Amino acid sequence: MGGLIGAFSQVIPYVIFKIDPSVSILDAIKTGQYTGMSLQLLKIGFINGKFSIYIIWFRNSNVCAF
User: Fold this and answer.
1) pLDDT score for 20
2) List of residues 6+ apart from 38 with CB closer than 8 A
3) Is 6 exposed, middle or buried, given 0-12, 13-18 or 19+ CB atoms closer than 10 A?
4) What is the pTM of this model?
5) Are 13 and 25 in contact (CB under 8 A)?
6) Burial of 42 (0-12, 13-18, 19+ CB in 10 A)
7) What are phi and psi of 17, to 5 degrees?
8) Residues 20 and 59: beta-carbon distance below 8 Å
9) Hey, how many other C-beta atoms are within 10 angstroms of the C-beta on 55?
């Protein structure tokens, strides 16, 4: 699940908006080049990328051991 969310978070900026992969999503947001719906999609991609890391960590931690 976390891997799927992480992959989706990379599709938004690097495929849809064609941002250079050497630029982070946060740096692209800070440029001010994106506004409106484009900015919201970039923010969603950034949040999804961070969220997917926690899903993978939680799944692999002892917290989920039953």
Assistant:
1) 86
2) 17
3) middle
4) 0.61
5) yes
6) buried
7) -95, -5
8) no
9) 15
